[in-house]
């Protein structure tokens, strides 16, 4: 076992080129929202909280889905960091995955329900 | 019948801690949680959390994690008490101190199928006594009777202080229902050729059966098992609710549990309406004076009598750190 070997991507803490984009500011969110409306891609907004165990439990599965569905945009929003955005999308229970296309909500999964989320993404990405 | 069916009656464990960390138990990593559940032989099926607590639907029941309280409720032949050593270890690592422990269950439909230490209540009590720290000085174990010798409510409680840790304005209600109406129980079977996820099928069961209407404010995570069976956790502010259904004829069972105020009697009525059981037991954890205990018992009777359920027995006992536990059994007039 050489020290030079790095862990597989799925287990790295916060990779710079992670397929899930973490949004930390209102400005970044506004910019992102604008560019979303101009594209035809499905976007999955993952609302999480640092104190929410269920969010942590599904994080690896979300990363895997982001790698699998290259034509879908995945963003992550912390409900404490961007509480206004969380309120705007009426998020009270987490994790909450809001699926948006062309500026409108087309689907939502509340809770760490891996299979349901995967199925919804597969259905709505076209 | 020599072969036992699936045991619906759950074993329930509630631990209270104290500590300075406002997040407390919610800091437990998924790996640590899974390790605790491995000891019990169950796994996480779905999960959700809000500002107050995390709720997990398990392969065999539910887990609720508050910062200073954990409720673990498992059915089948799970070895619930085996979770205690690793739970206590993880809590200690988080700087939390155990204040009280309450273990309770009804009577198993298939007692011979239970593994050690669930082979008998005395085995369970000995196991608990040996594994809880000496700081929990006040201990009591009791079997609360009903009119039918086969059905009792078993309670073990250990606490560092005599007084209850329950909030005075809320009570915990645990409802166990058997002999479910057959046609209503059939709604909890998966249909042939239905390849949807357990979450999807569960969500449909929640709506079609009326479970979603019990507390419309709650966010409900329902899950439908193959080939039958259903579990749900509800989250409403800091209040959890949970329902588990074993629909098989001959040993059908459904449970409902939640924490709340007066509206709990309303939920009780709606739940009985969903399952139309032949027999019901209602257990309540009450804090306060004897007045309250009598008021609660009458309220339960007032809620169930109009639904055709007659009260067959009533019992009440005080337990250290758990307040007063009342146990009432009812049977339907048609039987």
UniProtKB/TrEMBL annotation, chain A:
Domain Thioredoxin: 1-126
Keywords assigned: Disulfide bond, Electron transport, Redox-active center, Transport
Membrane-spanning parts: none
Top-level taxonomic group: Eukaryota
Protein name from the UniProt record: Thioredoxin H2-2
Pfam families, A to Z: Thioredoxin
